[in-house]
Write a structure and sequence with these properties.
Shape: globular
Strand content: 35-45%
Strand order of the largest sheet: 8-9-10-15-12-13
Radius of gyration: 19 Å
């Protein structure tokens, strides 16, 4: 039983919680479920979205979404489901009901928002690993790590919501050899107000590039206003890298 409102007759299996906030509010609440009671019902964040951009969210909203998703992912033992809302919006004048929506369309075309691409980037990697992020005060960097249990590939997800590049030193503990080459999928733009729209649907979309000098300990600089997924491959799978 999934309960959206208070239930007194019995304890529900899952509680459906809804959050519509500004991007900064989501950033500031990334630890929302860290201390959540583990012996009660599980959580389905059934409606949520950063509210900035019309009719679809801009990059700033996508950064808030990604930071919040990192918090949900880190607590996936209790948060077992999440669903962005609303999903679709007719972009013709007067046809929309809600201000910020994931995918825009009309009779001839559709396009994904920056927040749509965040969902795509986060959806592919499942097994969550323990992560410790050490930084100075005021940091706007958020991170999580997942692993593909089939081939051992590690995915480091980092949100840099700051206006400056953020260098990080990464240590991978408890793993075997990893390849020195990997892949970075990066969602960013020159300004956080960047937004995709009809006729300009690639203002803020992910780009994929090959990266080198990786390993069990390495340095990497994350671009301003960016969401990055670093794919760190098993050394056993890529002896030539």
């Amino acid at each position: 039983m999934i309960a959206t409102t208070g239930v007194t007759s019995r304890s529900p299996d899952i509680i459906d919680e809804h959050y519509y906030r500004g991007p900064e509010s989501f950033e500031n609440d990334v630890h929302h479920y860290d201390t959540y009671k583990r012996t009660g019902p599980k959580i389905f964040v059934g409606e949520w979205a950063s509210q900035e951009g019309f009719p679809t969210p801009n990059l700033h909203a996508a950064l808030g979404d990604a930071a919040w998703l990192i918090g949900l992912e880190r607590n996936s033992d209790i948060v077992i489901l999440e669903s962005y809302a609303p999903l679709l919006v007719n972009i013709n004048p007067g046809a929309s009901q809600w201000p910020t929506n994931l995918i825009g369309y009309d009779a001839l075309q559709s396009y994904g928002s920056p927040s749509y691409y965040v969902q795509v980037m986060f959806s592919k990697h499942r097994v969550v690993l323990p992560t410790t992020l050490t930084s100075t005060g005021g940091s706007k960097v958020y991170a999580s790590v997942t692993r593909d249990s089939r081939d051992g590939t590690i995915y480091l997800k980092v949100v840099n919501a700051a206006a400056d590049p953020q260098p990080l030193h990464v240590n991978l503990n408890g793993v075997g050899e990893v390849s020195h080459a990997g892949t970075a999928v990066i969602l960013t733009s020159t300004t956080p107000s960047a937004s995709n729209k009809p006729g300009d649907t690639a203002k803020a979309v992910p780009v994929t590039e090959r990266v080198h000098s990786l390993g069990r300990s390495f340095d990497y600089q994350f671009a301003p206003f960016s969401v990055t997924v670093l794919q760190i491959e098993s050394g056993n799978e890529h002896h030539g890298d």
